[in-house]
Amino acid sequence: MPIIQTELELLALVALLAYLLGSIPFGIVITRALGLGDLRAIGSGNIGATNVLRTGNKGAALATLILDAAKGGIAVLIARATVGEDAAQLAGLAAFLGHLFPVWLGFKGGKGVATFLGTLIALAWPVGLAACGTWLVVAVISRISSLSALVAAALSSLWLLVFDRGQMLLLVVALTVLVYIRHWANLQRIKAGTEPKIGAKKA
């Protein structure tokens, strides 16, 4: 992890602002704006891009994916540019927690995959792109979004070592654990062979 050089009060402010940015539920905002209904009553009820895709609107799903990834990346980049590397990693964690536990939705948020990948890209783009590539390869082979996310998250720590970014290991391990916790039900369905394929209408 990076050396903590920033005053705790400033780090706390960074964490709060990054959390608020991360907690913006873009999936719900986009689907409501397009008249697609309440995303929480569609498919799996999740607020992420995979569930938005179940509305049949690929553009809305793509916009959700990009914006959910961007909020993690933007939080990291602003914190790094204005404060420092310690703040950047904290901002990534806080934005991720904001997506998972948004105050606007009673702390019931998404599963964090897009925000996880966006955060990785901003922190260390070679690691982030390798994780995205991992997701894509598994998705093409399995057609299961959750499995792709779990494999990408699990291998992200390996990519850190490959690209000599070990100072991020503690953060990435913490994010990976949270991804697995949020995907626990998906894991059970994967084991049972009942996990839906990408583009399926129902959970």
Report the helical percentage.
55-70%
Number of strands: 0
Largest sheet: none
Question: Which parts are unreliable, with pLDDT below 50 for 5 consecutive residues or more?
Answer: none
Distance between the first and last residues' Cα = 38 Å
Mean pLDDT: 91
Number of helices: 10
The count of domains is 1
Based on Cα principal axes, name the global outline. Answer: globular
**How much β-strand is present in the residues?**
under 5%
Order of helices and strands: HHHHHHHHHH
| Rg measurement, Å | 16 Å
- Structural class, from secondary structure content? mainly alpha
Detail the topology: elements first, then pairings.
Blueprint: H1 8-22, H2 26-33, H3 49-53, H4 58-82, H5 85-100, H6 113-123, H7 125-142, H8 145-162, H9 169-182, H10 184-192
What does this molecule look like?
The chain has one domain. With 203 residues, it is mainly alpha-helical. It is globular and about 45 Å long. It has helices at 8-22, 26-33, 49-53, 58-82, 85-100, 113-123, 125-142, 145-162, 169-182, 184-192.
Entry keywords:
single chain, 203 residues, mainly alpha, 68% helix, 0% strand
